[in-house]
Design goal:
Elements (H helix, E strand, L loop, with lengths): L4 H6 L3 H6 L5 H15 L8 H18 L5 H12 L12
Helix pairs in contact: 4-5
C-alpha cells in the first residue's frame, strides 16, 4: 500500500503496511511472527489478543489519515473482517 507520510509515521509497523496490497490478519501475523523470531528468538510466541488489537489499531490509524473515498480506506473494512475470520494458517499464538 502506498500510505501518506504522516500515516506511515503514526503506524507501529509501517514496513508491513507498505509491503502489502490487500491487508489481512493472516498476513499481519506472518509479518509479526517473522519480526518476533528475528528480534526475540528466545520468545517466538505471539499473544493472539494482543496481535489482533495491534492490527485493529493500525487499521484505525490508516483510516484516520485517508479520505473515505480513497482506495486505501475502502480496503480497510475487509481487513477488519479478517480480524474475526478463522485463521487458515498456523502461527505460534498463546
Amino acid at each position: 500500500m502506498k500510505l501518506n507520510r504522516k500515516c506511515r509515521e503514526a503506524l507501529r509497523y509501517p514496513e508491513y503496511w507498505g509491503s502489502i496490497h490487500i491487508p489481512s490478519l493472516e498476513s499481519f501475523l506472518r509479518y509479526r511472527q517473522q519480526f518476533q523470531e528475528q528480534t526475540e528468538p528466545q520468545n517466538p510466541v505471539l499473544n493472539k489478543e494482543s496481535e489482533n488489537l495491534s492490527c485493529q489499531r493500525e487499521i484505525d490509524t490508516i483510516r484516520k489519515f485517508h479520505l473515505a473515498t480513497s482506495r486505501i480506506y475502502k480496503v480497510m473494512p475487509d481487513a477488519l473482517k479478517s480480524l474475526t475470520a478463522p485463521l487458515r494458517i498456523h502461527h505460534r499464538l498463546l
